[in-house]
Amino acid sequence: MDDERLRAVVQLPEGNWWDWDVVAWDGGQFRLAAGHDLSYYHGLELVFRDPFFVSCPSGFYDPTFRTPSPDELLQLARQLGEEPPVVVAFDADAGGQEPVSCLIAAERLDIVQETVLRYWRDDAAPGQRFHPWVRPPAR
Predict the structure, then answer these.
(1) Domain positions in the chain
(2) Do β-strands 100-117 and 129-130 pair in parallel, antiparallel, or remain unpaired?
(3) Is the whole model's pTM more than 0.70, yes or no?
């Protein structure tokens, strides 16, 4: 990816990515999950590797991805001492009267499309994985 693309609008694969939440956040990654109903599974993850800055709610709906503004890029450069390689901006419904503006800066962004189950199933299909908090029932 060239520098301009890293500041461009994130292009999501086709799908119904209305419902979003944070599924992992540690020093090495910040992971957002999306689907049409997160009760049972999610089908998309945005995986920000080595995050430098994160400003977004833990759960939100219907994000509109956009190009980061010059002011947002300047703010990040001032706070971090340099402009990070990946900057993603979006506005989303977080339950308030107006959308919330979100900004994430990281070393890298991976977009992963696969089914991740949020509950145990003995008959999980090949290629499906379980969310880390899902454990098989005690037998």
Answers:
(1) 3-130
(2) parallel
(3) yes
